[in-house]
Amino acid sequence: MNPRFTPIGLEDFEVIRSLATGAFGNVMLVQHKTTKDQFAMKVLNKEKVIRKDSINHVHNEKKILHATSFPFIVELKFRFQDAINLYMVMEFVPGGEMFPILQRYGAFTEPHACFYASQVVLAIEYLHHMDVIYRDLKPENILIDNMGYIKVI
């Protein structure tokens, strides 16, 4: 059974900590109560999404995440909603954002820059193949996994 279609809800997860705060809600590190797998759960407040006239934006984000499957793009695992919030449960990328790494070290060496740039190009090329134009490429939207590879969010 595809986990994206398995009936699941908030009660299936335990919140570990907050990872980030955004305009519509938060991203939390959660653990599935049964499997003990960890995920990043994006919690979007429906009222804020409606108030900021971003229904189409959120719908498109969900649709794109659901349709994509590529090593350098974060994967949507589950999605569900309740009366107050929308939930998108994605793979957890433990290395965090590229932005603080750049702040800490200033700049990457040329080999490191080429390594990361090639992965970004492949991710963007894949999205273009899917007829998706990615308009928010920045270090805050590039995560680095525990093996040193990137995941575009």
Quick take:
The chain has 153 residues and is of the alpha+beta class. It has 2 domains: 3-91, 2-Layer Sandwich (Phosphorylase Kinase, domain 1); 98-152, no CATH class. The chain has 4 helices and 7 strands, in the order βββααββααββ.
Topology:
Blueprint lengths: L12 E9 L3 E8 L5 E8 H6 L3 H13 L8 E6 L3 E7 L6 H8 L4 H20 L12 E3 L5 E3 L1
Antiparallel strand pairs: 1-2, 2-3, 3-5, 4-5, 6-7
How would you sum up this structure, described in words?
By secondary structure, the chain is an alpha+beta fold. The protein has two domains: 3-91, Phosphorylase Kinase, domain 1 (2-Layer Sandwich); 98-152, no CATH class. Helix content is 31%, strand content 29%. It has four helices and seven strands, in the order E-E-E-H-H-E-E-H-H-E-E. A five-stranded antiparallel beta sheet has the order 1-2-3-5-4. A two-stranded antiparallel sheet has the order 6-7. A hairpin with a 5-residue loop joins strand 2 (25-32) and strand 3. The longest helix has 20 residues, at 110-129. The two termini are 25 Å apart. The model has no long low-confidence stretch (mean pLDDT 93).
